[in-house]
Amino acid sequence: MAYVSSTLDNLVHQTAFFNLTVGNYIMIAVACVFLYLAIKKEYEPLLLVPIAFGMLLVNIYPDIMLHADKSANGVGGLLYYFYILDEWAILPSLIFMGVGAMTDFGPLIANPKSFLLGAAAQFGIFAAYFGAIALGFNDKAAAAVSIIGGADGPTSIFLAGKLGQTSIMGPIAVAAYSYMSLVPIIQPPIMKLLTTEKERKIKMEQLRPVSKLERILFPIVVTIIVCLILPTTAPLVGMLMLGNLFKESGVVRQLTETASNALMYIVVILLGTSVGATTSAEAFLNLATIKIVVLGLVAFIFGTAAGVLFGKIMCIATHGKVNPLIGSAGVSAVPMAARVSQKVGAEADPTNFLLMHAMGPNVAGVIGTAVAAGTFMAIFGVM
What we know:
Blueprint: H1 2-13, H2 22-39, H3 45-60, H4 78-87, H5 90-102, H6 106-110, H7 114-120, H8 123-134, H9 139-146, H10 153-162, H11 169-181, H12 183-194, H13 197-200, H14 212-229, H15 234-249, H16 253-276, H17 281-284, H18 287-317, H19 336-348, H20 355-379
Helix pairs in contact: 2-3, 3-16, 4-16, 5-10, 5-15, 5-16, 7-18, 7-20, 8-9, 8-18, 9-10, 10-11, 10-20, 11-18, 12-18, 12-19, 14-15, 15-16, 19-20
């Protein structure tokens, strides 16, 4: 009888109930909220579902992220090995390949001025950098936090790993993906505040057709120019453009389909769950996380505002031929930011069609955020 009692007592104490802290329960609740938003509200479900589930797992069973060096038998937890691929910048780079295979750079090629709007929207990154410095972050941590302003989750993870800021990678990734999903909520008030109804009603001329040769040359030329100037951008820009070359060349259909579908979604699962698993209660519930979330929001607001304001400048310079709303699409949330530009413009004039015009700054923003990350890496001498 004593044996049965001892065995049952041992089994009971092996349950998670006796090992979890109040913080763990809070994070479990947060994970459930994220799952609700992803499934019920459809806020970036492809990323938020694995991130939230990784968050759930690590706060129930912390050893799922156990470092191999801290393990009694030298074997780490399952998600620890996924996470190493984040630290090595492998998964973010592969996601960029998939994004490139799905992206149409035609609107950007047809209207090269869109590059300026994509560049203007990166202002929020550098504004947040100095804000992070003021709040006590060291220079590398400030750079890793500020890239949230580009609304580009893979780039945020890539830069945090490259700069050795893995301790704050979880909060940075969660903040970046959260703001990506909240683009339709955050951007419209800023866009309406900074533009007049007359500006929002501006109809832009139809974009010119883009030849197949131009589409093929674009990824090659961009890779050569950008990577010669900033070699540190090669993992992101290079993979983005390789994926796009698969798509536009028309001779490697199997590679295009693999990069944009099977490979892309496998990588999303690995990256999402491993990033979510970095948000243990000990790592996430602290003052630094609050600062990161606030700075990310500030960066995103500043980036949106800078894009719209530069759009207004272009509107004046072109004598009313550019609708300033497309400037807000300069952040990297593709294609959601472009859809928001279309939605706000259609509210002012239902016959206005801005989507394709907004896609130019939108895809330029993807390149711009990668360049911003490469610039920080070059400044700190990280390869």
